[in-house]
Write a structure and sequence with these properties.
There is one protein chain. By secondary structure, this protein is mainly β. It has a single domain (10-61), classed as Integrase, DNA-binding domain (Double Stranded RNA Binding Domain), CATH 3.30.160.390. It has 1 helix and 4 strands; from the N terminus they run H-E-E-E-E. The chain has one helix at residues 10-15; strands at residues 23-26, 31-35, 41-49, 52-61.
């Protein structure tokens, strides 16, 4: 069953604070922002493939400029 998408707004992401445990912010469509106790934020995408749950790490938020 497909869930309705709750769009993650930039203000919501920027205001997400670190807690004692990892916190997940989701858009309902598989995109997840992991907020770590250290304060770092990482994008991940969860999906199903051949009946198995898979996930892929997309990268950090905010994007770090390449040097």
């Amino acid at each position: 069953m497909r869930h309705s998408n709750d769009v993650l707004k930039p203000a919501t992401i920027d205001n997400a604070k670190a807690k004692d445990k990892r916190c997940d912010l989701t858009d309902g469509g598989g995109l997840v922002l992991k907020v770590m106790p250290s304060g770092s934020k990482t994008w991940r995408f969860k999906y199903h493939l051949n009946g198995k749950r898979e996930k892929v790490t997309i990268g950090a938020y905010p994007v770090q400029p390449m040097s």
